[in-house]
Amino acid sequence: MPTDNICNDSDKLTGSFAELSRVREIEQSITKRRRFKENIFSRFTKAVVEFDMIKPYDKIAVCISGGKDSMLMAKLFQELKRHDKFPFELEFIVMDPGYSEPNRIAIEDNSQLLGIPIHIFETRIFDAVYKIDKSPCYLCARMRRGHLYKQAQLLGCNKIALGHHYDDVIVTTLMGMLWGGQIQTMMPKLRSTNYEGMELIRPMYYIREDDIEAWRDFNGLRFLRCACRFTEQTEASPDDKESDSKRLETKRLIRELKKSNPHIEANIFNSMRNVNVDTVIAYKKDGVIHRFTDDY
Q1: 115 in the Ramachandran plot: left (φ > 0), alpha (ψ -120 to 50) or beta?
Q2: How far apart are CA 223 and CA 265, in angstroms?
């Protein structure tokens, strides 16, 4: 269970003029440089509008893991709020599941560097899953999600925002087919079935990972890659080191297929918009399986 020790680091943001100038420089790169404005901020706002992710008076818990995706998402939310189209509130929350001290410090330092006032709360998730042999990453992800929902509720939020991007969507979609024997995708928003009144949103749905990395490198930033105990010895590095995980294996497969079909990523992404139910042998709706023979 999370402790009650919530750390609000907003006091750290009153830094020197040089530090504040650095924050502003990073912020302006999102809206002033053409590539980042078109491929990052515009795609962020497109997902927010198209999927109706934010409504007036929402209070959104922006969930920060310490990686490039969630850190950029926090900056995008700050920029969106500056436009002040309608009132909504933000809480930037960081769950510490048992980070090593260097990784915890890296998250705090990056949050200060980027001008993000974070609330840190602690759990013992790494201790709970470290000795589990079967699917520890799956269990860790499930436990993290539950703690984030609970903490968001304690802060009075009605939504949590996660930093999954376009490439996460296509990899998840293909993984379901190849390794799970099912057709499903990562949805842009979901109502929680366990936390009443809570909703999950993914506003980076249309943003490509290459553009996130380009923004990171342009600004000379270094973020955590994963920071779990299984891999933390490499997490201070921004390099996407390969492993034998099914997710990375699927990413490699997509890169290989792209050599002969440059549209492969868009085709996988769009396939979930173009499902022809008349050609599906069976599908599940609200837990009920429907077969084509039912109406044949």
Answers
A1: left
A2: 26
CA distances, 10 to each of 58, 116, 222 (Å)? 21, 8, 21
How does residue 20 score in pLDDT terms, banded at 50, 70 and 90? confident
Residue with tokens 């998840």: 172
Structure tokens at 23: 């924050």
Instruction: Give the domains, in start order, of the chain with CATH numbers.
Output: 7-242 (3.40.50.620)
Look at residues 181, 172, 159, 11 and name the one whose alpha carbon lies nearest to residue 88: 159
139-182: pLDDT as tens digits: 677 777 888 999 999 999 999 999 999 999 999 999 999 999 99
Residue 60 sits at φ, ψ, to 5 deg, of -110, 130
What are the tens digits of pLDDT across the range 192-221? 999 999 999 999 999 999 999 999 999 999
59-63 and 89-96 strand pairing? parallel
38-87 pLDDT, tens digit each: 999 999 999 999 999 999 999 999 999 999 999 999 999 999 999 878 89
> Which two structure tokens, joined as six digits, stand for 277?
């139910």
In this prediction the pTM is 0.86
Cα–Cα distance list, 119 to 112, 126, 154, 170, 172 (Å): 12, 20, 12, 31, 29
Instruction: Report residue 74 as tokens.
Output: 């926090």
Give the C-alpha separation, 39 to 210, whole Å: 10
> Which string of b and e fits 208-245 if b means at least 16 CB within 10 Å?
bbebbebbbeebebebbbbbbbeebeebeeeeeeeeee
- Mean per-residue pLDDT for 122-149? 72
How far separated are the first and last CA of the chain, in Å rounded? 51
